[in-house]
Design goal:
The structure is a homodimer of 352-residue chains. Chain A is of the alpha/beta class. Chain A is built from 15 helices and 11 strands. Helix content of chain A is 48%, strand content 13%.
Chain lengths: 352, 352
């Protein structure tokens, strides 16, 4: 394995000393970049882009060519697992993901299984290997998966939802069915992330995009408990280095103490949380990743720098902070503004 | 004035002793009720229904005929103020609200003014008087308004939004313009709520539907500060009774201590907050309203009763709790299930 030239991101996740605050951006390889749009057009569909290791590598590296980012993240989708379960994922243009089949009945649930990642998800592992090789030790590569609950939301609804009516109906009338789905998903995510680690991922993030739609009580039982199972089952070390795990529940700011007890090395914060208060609440247990409002990037360069400064100051001295957006970067952001953000994080955190 | 036969709701808001936990439901007069849909069809458009005092009274009372609710809420919309400002509100079927004009430039902002509620909003005051008369002291009547920030979101975007791109662009590049809009809105909301109180509203609620889309820091400055101004300017007493004010920021669970300092009598909680923890955090300063996940109503009767019991137990002994949903009831809920909820709140809270 090539030596890692910039391991600031990994050190910050483990609260080891760093020279500056490392930064990456959720969805950094995405539609706001014209070069991404060009590759995407060549690939055909979004899923064809995910499935082509060469093109997935190309788009993963595009933001690193533009900006001095401290980490790369695998270009893929959180819905690869339910697709590998045979639910038939497609993306209608401008409409978000759709599944051909949903999981709602006892029979649907009984036929679910955790896919072998080296079978139907081999294309993801190929992308991981290819990206890792192309990075050549420049920065670490992050692997990822959706959380069991977030995957279940799409599997049950068959698409995105603004009320998760079918998920909630199951939760409040047949919790046993939902638990059965989540158990399969937790197994599948564990195997998938471990396979990504074996293929070269140097850190992993669990995206719990919809855990924040749950009540306090339901979050613990139906989302966090299954993420704990995954964290317990992950490969902890590879090639003599710790593989840090980040848990990101969007809308989970009220539950940080519980998330900090999950065994994860770091918690992703959305922009609604005061990072100073978050640090006080979780103590020394975990590192924090976040938490700029992604829509600050629609503001002026001065507005962006001022918000970066506010967050760096709020986190305060010492390691344990990875700068990021509180959610993915919008396709409508001017790439220049992303550059302003990254420069501001680096220069302002070095100065302190 | 007729004597109030059931003032449990008002007493709970003021933390005075009550025999049971009072309950009402956000959007209780709404599309889940077939009788509402029938009146709505007779009215023509949604705004015609709001503007017709007789029909607005009819739909306000419909849920009270079905269920032993402890409060009525004025049937109206949060966007009446920007409409009265001349922005041209309309509701395209199945598409949500639209404004013909947006407020984005210096010139747009300069021409904004707080409308005299006895002029263009007289139809709302007529509805308040008419409903109050029809209630005949049965239960108290709640008046309401959108918060200055929530109104500004619609005024700037011209419609609902999932990223509030234009609002955030203004906030992070021209905060002075946003503050100017919010100052006008705060004046308008204060005048509007006071006019509702004069017309007969016995409690008021400020709906801060979109405050939760802000960062911790921006929430304090751009939403909460203006709600404080309103609370300061509200009529505190009428006919010898305190007029309680409820502030409800959806997604505001991380900021309860700050909201409790706004001067409001009660805080509305969405379903993501643990009400036991919320009570501990706000202490004796305010009452709490909430906080059942509205989608529990898609579950079984047993599931509904079990969640009601969980919330009542979490709040614990003593007054200061008004039971409600954490957000509006869905149009797809079976009215029978709403009945199960209300019966459960009353019977389970009497038993304790």
């Amino acid at each position: 394995m090539t030596t890692l030239k910039n391991d600031t991101f990994l050190r910050a996740l483990l609260k080891e000393p760093v020279e500056y605050t490392p930064v990456w951006m959720m969805r950094q390889a995405g539609r706001y970049l014209p070069e991404y749009r060009a590759t995407r057009a060549r690939a055909g569909s979004f899923m064809q882009l995910c499935m082509n290791a060469e093109l997935a590598t190309e788009v993963t590296l595009q933001p690193l060519e533009r900006y001095p980012l401290d980490a790369a993240i695998l270009f893929s989708d959180i819905l690869t697992i339910p697709d590998a379960m045979g639910l038939g994922l497609s993306f209608a243009e401008g409409e978000g993901p759709r599944f051909a089949r949903t999981v709602r009945t006892e029979a649907d649930v009984a036929s679910l299984y955790a896919p072998d990642p080296t079978d139907k998800l081999q294309y993801v592992l190929n992308a991981v290997s290819s990206i890792r090789k192309a990075l050549d030790g420049r920065v670490p590569l992050i692997g990822f998966s959706g959380s069991p609950f977030t995957l279940a939301c799409y599997m049950i609804e068959g698409r995105g939802s603004d009320d998760f009516r079918n998920v909630k109906a199951m939760l409040y009338s047949r919790p046993d069915l939902l638990h059965a789905i989540l158990a399969v998903n937790a197994r599948a995510v564990t195997d998938y992330l471990n396979a990504q680690i074996e293929a070269g991922a140097q850190a992993v993030q669990i995206f719990d995009t919809w855990g924040g739609a749950l009540s306090h009580a339901a979050y613990q039982t139906f989302s966090l408990a299954y993420m704990k199972t995954i964290v317990d089952g992950l490969i902890k070390e590879k090639d003599g280095r710790r593989i840090p795990c980040i848990v990101f529940t969007k809308g989970g700011g009220q539950w940080l103490e519980a998330i900090a007890g999950s065994g994860a090395d770091a918690i992703g914060l959305d922009w609604t949380t005061d990072i100073a208060e978050a640090r006080r609440r979780v103590g020394e247990r975990v590192a924090l990743q976040g938490n700029l409002d992604p829509n600050v990037l629609f503001g002026s360069p001065e507005g962006i720098r001022s918000e970066v400064a506010r967050i760096l100051t709020a986190y305060g001295e010492g390691s344990g902070h990875v700068f990021n957006l509180g959610h993915g970067i919008s396709q409508f952001v001017d790439p220049e503004n992303a550059g302003v953000l990254i420069e501001a994080v680096h220069s302002l955190s070095r100065r302190r």
